[in-house]
Amino acid sequence: MNPAVQGIFVTGTDTGVGKTSISAAIVALLAKSGVRIAGLKPVAAGMAVIDDERINEDVRALREVSVPALCADEIAACQFDAACAPHIAAALEGRHIERDAVLKSVRAIAARYDRVVVEGVGGFRVPFDDTGTWDSADLAVDLGLPVLLVVGLRLGCINHALLTAEAIRARGLPLCGWIANTVDAPMPYMKGNLDALARGLGNAPCLGLVPHLPMHNPTPEIIAPYLNVAALHALFQSQSILSETP
After folding, report:
1. What pLDDT is recorded for position 52?
2. Any idea of the CA torsion for 64, 69, 73, 76, to the nearest 10 degrees?
3. Given 19, 32, 41, 191, the catalytic residue
């Protein structure tokens, strides 16, 4: 039997809503309290040269905060050059995203750490093959992790968030919380949007409200003041997040 993976799965209402920045901030916060925690992005598409190293930008961000340190290949079992849908990026290289290999990699890392933060790709349901039988939602289910939803605050976010929450719960996974990240500035009718999200997402608590930050990929230190640190610590300490009935 595979040992249980302890931690959370981070998804978003869309691509480009700040999943990695928020995941890295959560990992950094927990690491400061002495938790052995790793940030993982099992499937990553899009490589760049950063400080003379060819690496995925998200993988690099998660590597910088994981304690103890990991190498890029441990954080991301599958990395592809093209910045596009993962199954397309894989096909361009004549490769496949192998389900068993990805799960084996994540479980091996999780066995060495107290907790893991596993980041998905784009939104909740992103294909990992061209048959429709293996996607990022399946990854969350396979790992048995509760899901934290990053809501990109912009026009349309209420619909995107509620549909995503519905899909998460339909897979039998608990939605353990959500973090609002202000993508558009200004964001009109902020309070009305937040009130609608709180009602629509039910008993899932809001664990942070991040304002619009003009810099690209803000650091964990910049994001941390906008997160509910006490609630995040409690979330990771509680085993109830792994057995909540959606």
Report:
1. 87
2. -60
3. 41
Q: Answer yes or no: is pLDDT of 243 > 70.
A: no
Domain ranges of the chain: 7-242
Domain 7-242 class, CATH top level: alpha beta
- Residue 41 known to be catalytic: yes
Q: Which two tokens stand for residue 245?
A: 């009935």
Mean pLDDT, residues 37-49? 96
Q: What is the pLDDT of residues 86-139, one digit of tens each?
A: 999 999 999 999 999 999 999 999 999 999 999 999 999 999 999 889 999 999
State how far the alpha carbon of 121 is from the alpha carbons of 139, 148, 162, 169, 230, in Å: 10, 13, 18, 18, 27
H/E element, 28: helix 19-32
- DSSP annotation of 128 reads S
Q: pTM for this structure? A: 0.94
Residue 3 has a pLDDT of 56
